Amino acid sequence: MQKYIIISTILFLSMESNQLLDYLPAAPNKILDIGCGTGELTAQIAAKGFNVLGIDQSNNMIQKAKLNFPNLDFVQGNILHMQLEQGSFDTVFSNAVFHWINDQQTLAMKIHTVLKPGGLLVCEFGAEGNIKTISTAFSTELNLLGKAYYSPFYFPSVSEYTTLLKQNNFEIITAYDYPRPTTLKEGYSGLSNWVKQFFAADLVKLDDPDTVMKHLEDRLEDKLWKDDHWEADYHRIRVVAKSI
Ligand code: BEZ
Questions:
Q1: Domain-wise residue ranges, the chain
Q2: Which fold has domain 5-243?
Q3: Which of 106, 113, 135, 226 has its CA 20 to 30 A from that of 145?
Q4: Contacts 24+ apart (CB under 8 A), 43-46
Q5: From ligand 1's centre to the CA of 153, what distance in Å?
Q6: Given the CA of residue 234, which atom of ligand 1 is nearest to it?
Q7: How confident is the model at residue 18 (pLDDT cuts 50, 70, 90)?
Q8: What helix, strand, coil percent values describe the chain, rounded to 5?
Q9: Mind listing the pLDDT tens digit for each residue in 101-146?
Q10: Ligand 1: which residues within 6 Å by Cβ?
């Protein structure tokens, strides 16, 4: 595990805590939640007394978020293209979303633009090595069919991501990666349901996806099947950085 931590006086952190939300500053302020999905974390941020706007590019998610939490603010849009007022947020928060975004340079610039000077980015997403056991096995199965697997995800190392942020005028407060083994729900079907969600683009190109899935389960059973559930080998990066 790579660790890079600078304690800053502006943060009130519980370093023992495992919750990304605990990295938010103590004082109430205005927060942008990028990729809020159905709004559960946005609501937890609001419950801490923050003024929060949740955004997500999925209209379906935003409609559900509005139904779930009618008193909170949600807007549908893609952070890379949305018109958000410059310097209008004290903190940008994001959980489990940045790995979906290819244009990280534009994302970092955009976050810097919407933050006030001295504002914070608090984020977590997939790190280098995330789901390596699953993706390696999937890649092997595709290779046996004469096909290749190209990961669509951005899973950077700590040094790669912190370098990008520094190039975009951020000072790193805390940055580390950590293993986060994740239980997949729904028993033995859990792996195939997960693969259908995260490797969907590859599965649709296969003549016989069910057989590939069966071979994948066989290949991964020793490594990831734990008595009554699959455990995906998630590995996350967590960063708190200050806009300068
Ligand atoms: C995650 O770390 O949440 C994740 C990212 C991409 C694919 C699967 C899981």
A1: 5-243
A2: Rossmann fold (3.40.50)
A3: 226
A4: 43/68, 43/69, 43/72, 45/21, 45/93, 46/72
A5: 8
A6: 2
A7: low
A8: 35, 25, 35
A9: 999 999 999 999 999 999 999 999 999 999 999 999 999 999 999 9
A10: 96, 99, 126, 130-131, 153, 198, 234, 236
